[in-house]
Amino acid sequence: METVNKADRKNDIQNRLKRIEGQIKGLQRMIDEGKGCSDILIQVSAVKAAVNRVGILIFEEHSRGCLMDALGREDDGALDTLIDLMNRFLGSNISTGKIERD
């Protein structure tokens, strides 16, 4: 598995956000120029996919840090917090109740 340092991950996310910014400006231009709805919707779909990918990368980074901290402190609640964050990120309204362990 390839090891990527934190600065490289941050740089990757920043570059992705700059590309998304360009895509958004392109969408605005398409609307101003009266491009067809199907072409615009295809680009909207591409922007959504790119934003979702950035969210996943940020979530992955947060998860690594959160879990490493929790392991160091033996914090059982950190996993519940992480699951709640994942549900919010995914737009889920599912409530996670803590399962009692024997």
Can you characterise this structure?
With 102 residues, this protein is mainly alpha-helical. It is 76% helix and 0% strand. The chain has three helices and no strands. It has helices spanning 6-32, 37-73, 77-90. The longest helix has 37 residues, at 37-73. The radius of gyration is 19 Å and the shape is elongated.
Percentage of residues in strands: under 5%
In total, the number of strands is 0
Q: Which value, in Å, is the CA radius of gyration?
A: 19 Å
Q: Alpha-carbon distance between the termini?
A: 35 Å
Shape: elongated
Coarse structural class: mainly alpha
Helix content: over 70%
Low-pLDDT sequence parts = none
Overall pLDDT score: 83
Order of helices and strands: HHH
How many individual helices? 3
| Main sheet attributes: strand count, strand direction, barrel closure | none
Structural features:
102 residues; mainly alpha; 3 helices; 76% helix
Question: Concise description?
Answer:
This protein has 102 residues and is an all-alpha fold. It is 76% helix and 0% strand.
SSE diagram, text form:
Blueprint (H helix, E strand, L loop, with lengths): L5 H27 L4 H37 L3 H14 L12
Helix pairs in contact: 1-2, 2-3
